[in-house]
Design goal:
Number of helices: 10
Largest sheet: 6 strands, mixed
Structural class: alpha/beta
Order of helices and strands: EEHHEHEHEHEHEEEEHEHHHEEE
CATH architecture of the largest domain: 3-Layer(aba) Sandwich
Strand order of the largest sheet: 5-4-6-7-1-14
Bound molecules: oxa(dethia)-CoA
Distance between the termini: 37 Å
Number of strands: 14
Number of domains: 2
Radius of gyration: 18 Å
CATH superfamily of the largest domain: Thiolase/Chalcone synthase
Strand content: 25-35%
């Protein structure tokens, strides 16, 4: 299939989760909610929250460093930071992250696609490697939602968490495990009011029920398309790693896809919804637990604000995640 073509190959995986954990019980102590409601409606039990002194760039740099270490590398020539919560409106977060990693001189930019940011970043960086524009790229999803979540809004305060996850992509053969086989991206801006920080306001507003209704069919269609495009039937998918927004969404997508039971990867119970960071964080936990094995057929699918969505397909490589 490859005929020696250069492809982007996932060779490193790193994460950073802030030390502080906020449980559902902690939230129920100050909001009109309960562990039972949160857990049964979302699957979330706890989330990590960054201290005020920790920036998105700090989380991103730690995850990026971990991904480089995981790959046994010390440099790369492109740094993409997918985030909803950049430290400043201007300049982008990525140049500071690159310099913190000793990569001054690397191409560096932020990417804003909310919960689909990691898949968008993966798609763009893989295309740049395949085109020969870059030789290797860190794709980092990093979020500090605690900066934009209204602590009084029980509709969002119970959902989101902070953290970062990163992969290193390097040029390699399209036939090796880890090669990004195909990606697809989509959007529907008619839904841009459904998840938004309204202009001039500080906090995120989400029409959760409406987002839920749109997420399920869109994720199913995107996952099905990406699988078909690489010649897999739904029953061939060994692991489905969706954006961790809600366990019920993920279960419903997996069921409608018709993939084998046991292939659904989820870590939402431990980290909540970490937006652009959620897929690499879920990949790392699954790899640690031995739920991802070399050669497994893996589908990544995200959906979120914009509205945006995207999918990617790859065979799982031999990669050992590093955590910072
Ligand atoms: O990551 C980007 C993409 N985001 C998503 O995909 C989010 C998708 N949406 C969701 O995950 C769910 O819609 C939520 C978890 C946000 C909400 O769950 P839901 O089952 O859709 O609940 P709902 O908004 O329809 O609210 C049901 C009830 C309401 O009360 P009434 O009107 O039935 O009396 C809410 O006021 O639950 C109430 N409620 C809560 N109760 C206790 C809403 N939030 C809470 C809460 N604790 N935290």
């Amino acid at each position: 299939m490859s005929e020696g073509r250069t492809s982007a190959v996932l060779t490193g995986l790193g994460t950073c989760l802030p030390e502080r954990i906020v449980t559902n019980e902690d939230l129920a102590g100050r909001l009109d909610t309960s562990h039972e409601w949160i857990h049964s409606r979302t699957g979330i039990a706890r989330r990590h929250v960054a201290d005020p002194g920790t920036s998105t760039a700090d989380l991103a740099a730690a995850a990026g460093r971990a991904a480089l270490e995981s790959a046994g590398r010390s440099d790369c020539d492109l740094v993409v930071v997918a985030t909803t919560t950049p430290d400043r409106a201007c300049p982008a977060t990525a140049p500071a992250v690159a310099s913190a990693l000793g990569l001054t001189g690397a191409g560096a930019f932020d990417l804003s696609a909310v919960c689909s940011g990691f898949v968008y970043g993966l798609s763009v960086a893989a295309a740049m490697i395949t085109a020969g524009t870059s030789r290797s790229a860190l794709v980092i999803g990093a979020e500090r939602y605690s900066a934009i979540v209204d602590p009084e809004d029980r509709g969002t305060a119970v959902i989101f968490g902070d953290g970062a996850g990163a992969v290193l992509l390097e040029g390699g053969d399209a036939d090796v495990p880890g090669a990004v086989l195909r990606t697809e991206l989509g959007s529907d801006g008619t839904g841009n009011e459904l998840i938004t920080v309204p202009p001039g306001e500080r906090y995120l507003r989400m029409q959760g029920r409406e987002v839920y209704t749109r997420a399920v069919p869109t994720m199913v269609e995107s996952a099905r398309r990406i699988a078909e495009s690489v010649g897999w039937r739904p029953e061939d998918i060994d692991a489905f790693v969706g954006h961790q927004a809600n366990l019920r969404i993920l279960e419903s997508v997996a069921k409608r896809l018709g993939m084998p039971p046991g292939g659904l990867i989820t870590n939402i119970e431990d980290v909540g919804n970490t937006a652009a960071a959620s897929i690499p964080l879920a990949l790392a936990q699954a790899a640690d637990q031995g739920r991802l094995q070399r050669g497994d057929r893996v589908v990544l699918t995200a959906f979120g604000g914009g509205l945006t969505w995207g999918s990617a397909a790859l065979h799982w490589p031999d990669v050992r995640p590093v955590h910072r």
